[in-house]
């Protein structure tokens, strides 16, 4: 007759599963943990893509993306007014000087001062930009190469918050801040700009401002330099 209680033996077997069974549970737990980590990583990546930066870096300056510009056009009458500006620039013969979109960039510090990255100038100011664009296309680019605009028209509020001059030519859509597309050195850039400014003289009404790095200002609303 067998000795011992069969139920006790079954209980002992249940409390202490074989080593192989213990190993299988650890494998399952490890795979489950790895899957959870992969799902977490995927979620973080999708969150990052959903909140993409509204700007890109241009020579150290933050320039609003084309997607941000499209969002701007969807607001109010902006698309209609922008189309009118494009037509004006084409009729004035300067549509090829730069993409019209670039002329609406207020500056590179809009995130810091909580202002829109783009603004459309009043129609009365549009003629002010024609001579400036011609100077950039016909004189500046041949001298230093292609350039990008980091700031053009600025609203009064933007200019005030950015610490701009009360007489800033950005407010009247006459001045632009530029950076060269090439890797020209600051020293060479300054030499070329000053030579250009001296050569064109007062007849061009060229205003030239040189800032830090390779950023500089050009307008055609008063012969001066700073």
Describe this structure in words.
It is a single chain. With 226 residues, the protein is of the alpha+beta class. α6 packs across α8. The model has no long low-confidence stretch (mean pLDDT 89).
Give short descriptive properties of this protein.
alpha+beta, five-stranded mixed β-sheet, elongated, 12% strand, 8 helices, two-stranded antiparallel ribbon, 7 strands, 226 residues
Topology of helices and strands:
Elements: H1 6-15, H2 19-50, E1 55-58, E2 61-64, H3 66-73, H4 78-91, H5 110-113, H6 128-144, E3 147-151, H7 156-161, E4 176-180, H8 186-200, E5 207-210, E6 216-219, E7 224-225
Parallel strand pairs: 5-7
Antiparallel strand pairs: 1-2, 3-4, 4-6, 5-6
Helix pairs in contact: 6-8
Strand content: 5-15%
**What is the rounded distance between the termini?**
112 Å
- Poorly predicted spans: none
* Number of H/I helices: 8
Order of helices and strands: HHEEHHHHEHEHEEE
Strand order of the largest sheet: 3-4-6-5-7
Overall body shape: elongated
Put the structure in a nutshell.
With 226 residues, the protein is an alpha+beta fold. The protein is built from eight helices and seven strands; from the N terminus they run ααββααααβαβαβββ. Helices cover 47% and strands 12% of the residues.
């Amino acid at each position: 007759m067998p000795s011992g209680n069969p139920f006790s033996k079954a209980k002992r077997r249940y409390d202490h599963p074989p080593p192989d069974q213990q190993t299988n549970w650890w494998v399952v737990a490890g795979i489950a943990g790895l899957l959870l980590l992969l799902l977490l990583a995927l979620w973080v990546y999708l969150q990052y893509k959903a909140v993409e930066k509204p700007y890109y870096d241009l020579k150290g300056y933050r320039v609003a993306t084309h997607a941000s510009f499209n969002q701007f056009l969807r607001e109010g009458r902006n698309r209609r007014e922008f189309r009118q500006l494009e037509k004006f620039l084409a009729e004035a013969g300067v549509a090829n000087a730069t993409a019209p979109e670039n002329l609406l960039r207020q500056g590179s510090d809009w995130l810091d001062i909580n202002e829109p990255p783009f603004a459309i100038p009043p129609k009365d100011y549009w003629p002010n930009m024609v001579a400036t664009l011609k100077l950039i296309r016909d004189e500046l680019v041949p001298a230093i190469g292609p350039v990008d605009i980091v700031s053009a028209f600025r609203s009064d509020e933007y200019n005030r918050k950015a610490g701009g001059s009360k007489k800033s030519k950005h407010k009247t859509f006459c001045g632009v801040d530029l950076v060269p597309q090439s890797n020209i050195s600051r020293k060479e850039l300054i030499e070329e700009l000053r030579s250009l400014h001296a050569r064109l003289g007062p007849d061009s009404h060229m205003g030239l401002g040189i800032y830090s790095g390779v950023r500089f200002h050009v307008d055609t609303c008063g012969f001066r330099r700073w």
